[in-house]
Amino acid sequence: MQANAIPEGYRQDAKGHLVPEQHIKEIDKLRDELVQELAERAQDLHKRMADFKRHAFNSIAAFVSLSAEQYRVHIGGKKGNVTLVAYDGRYKVIRQFQETIKFDERLLAAKALIDQCLAEWTEGARTEIRTIINDAFRVDQQGNIRTGQVLQLRRLEIDDPRWQEAMRAIGEAVQVMGSKSYVRVYQRDKDGAYQPITLDLSAVAL
Fold first, then answer.
1. pLDDT string in tens for the chain (206-residue length)
2. Helix (H, G, I), strand (E, B) or coil at 165
3. How far from chain centre, in Å, is Cα 166?
């Protein structure tokens, strides 16, 4: 629904009231004009960034498909991390998908089994493993389990059947809550290191 037109000579305040311009201080008018101008430019920039992201993902997916056709294979879906480098090595484009992972209640069972192992291991034995385990189950500043550290426990080769059952429980406790997609573009500097061409407004140097 289209907003009602504001009569000439009036401005609408934050409460929706129409205020005659002659009753508005000059500094308030200038502030309003500045904010309106910056907001309009920000909206235009946001739209162009969204268009770029859409174009980048579609173009990368099309190129990956084209490249796969050289080997007479079809790659299903649009997921999968990909790195593309310009022929001269000056630019690099990375497509990334990052999943948000949480654990369900089965993590509690895994932790109980791990605690049984720790309780029965002789004092002083497997000291490094004890440290890794205790660190894995420490929560972050928001009180959340650090999923990466917990999942790394499955790389430890321990023969105890309870440990192996705990690792199975950890694997089954993983729940994918969602995913985010990224396109990152880099340019190689004079030292040969790739520096990001940042699209984050707060990180753009003036």
1. 445 789 999 999 999 999 999 999 999 999 999 999 999 999 999 999 999 999 999 999 999 989 988 887 776 656 688 999 999 999 999 999 888 889 999 999 999 999 888 888 766 566 777 788 888 888 877 778 888 889 999 988 888 899 999 999 999 999 988 888 889 999 999 999 999 998 887 777 76
2. helix
3. 29
Pick from 97, 101, 79, 98: which is nearest to 177 by CA?
A: 101
Domains of the chain, by residue range, sit at 101-177
C-alpha dihedral sign at 157, 162, 165, 166: negative
Name the amino acid, one letter, at 96: Q
- Between CA 20 and CA 29, with CA 26 as vertex, the angle to 5 degrees is 70
Separation CA 54–CA 95 (nearest Å): 12
Q: Which of 104, 101, 162, 105 is nearest to 133 (CA)?
A: 162
Please give the DSSP secondary-structure letter assigned to residue 97. Answer: E
What angle (nearest 5°) sits at the alpha carbon of residue 187, between those of residues 182 and 191?
135
